[in-house]
Amino acid sequence: MKKLKVFFLIIALLAIGAGLWWWWQHEKVYPSTDDAYLQANVLTIAPQVGGRVAQVAIAENDHVKAGDLLLQIDPDELQAALTTAQAQYDIARQNAGASDSDVSAADARIVGARAALTEAEISYDRNARLRELGDVAQAALDQAKAKRDSAQAAVKAAEAALVAAQNKAGTSGDENASVRAALGALTQAQINLDNSRIIAPADGWIANIRLRPGQVVAANAPLFSLVEDGDWWVDANFKETDLDRIRPGQPVSLSVDMYPGTVMTGTVESIGAGSGAIFSLLPPQNATGNWVKVTQRFPVRIKLTNKPDHPAMQLRVGASVTATVDTSAQDTAR
Question: Measured between alpha carbons, how far is 147 from 125 in angstroms, rounded to an integer?
Answer without folding.
Answer: 12
